Each structure stands twice: as C-alpha cells, then as structure tokens.
Amino acid sequence: VQLQACGGGLVQAGGSLGLSCAASRRTFSSYTMGWFRQAPGKEREFVARISRSGGSTAYADSVKGRFTISRDNAKNTGYLQMNSLKPEDTAVYFCAAQQLGPNDYGYWGQGTQVTVSS
Q1: pLDDT in tens, 25-71
Q2: Closest alpha carbon to 20 in 65, 67, 81, 66
Q3: Which helix (H) or strand (E) is 5 found in, with range?
Q4: Which of 3, 24, 35, 38 is at 20 to 30 A from 47, Cα to Cα?
Q5: How far is Cα 26 from Cα 16, in angstroms, rounded to an integer?
Q6: CA angle centred on 8, ends 67 and 58, rounded to 5°
C-alpha cells in the first residue's frame, strides 16, 4: 500500500488546516491508520489513530480537543483536521497504515510540512 499525504502549508496560530492521506489500494480499509509528526531536532511522535471501521479513535494529549482524525474507506482516504493550531504544532506530518505495534506501522506516507506562525 502506498500512502500519499497532502494538505500541509503555512497558517497563523489559531488557524486550521486539513490533511488527507490517500491510499493506493482498497486494502486500506483493513488497516488501522495513524498520523505522526516530527519537528526539527525532535523524534517522531504519535498524533492520532483511528480503527479500521472508524469507530475508535485515540489522540495524543497535546492535540486532544483540537485535532480530529477520520477516514472514508470508500475513498481509501484518511484525514486529519487540525484546529486552533499552535506554533508547537509545526512539524512534518506523516500518515501510516497497518499498525504492528504502539507506534510501529507497516506502511508510511512521505510526509507533509505544517508550519504555524505566531
């Protein structure tokens, strides 16, 4: 499965951005999907996760209440809606599919840059 993340960009603090992650195969619906991010000089960190059906989600404490993960299996696409963005949300965001461990996934997208200015 190939994953293509897009939707990043530059936004002012307090603004919103929506990311999408398009999968190349319909087997996407068989996989848990996650979003991660990596800021300069920092390790990659978990952001959010959604179950195969979309019925269960989990978020990092730092984004809870501001970010929403969703998916449309008919379109083989996952989403991350980010509201009330903060400068500390600045990072490269990656989507992933097929959870193998807590933060271990079988498939990764190439990443999209999100920059939040103060």
Answers
A1: 888 899 999 999 999 999 999 999 999 999 999 999 999 999 999 99
A2: 81
A3: strand 3-6
A4: 24
A5: 29
A6: 25
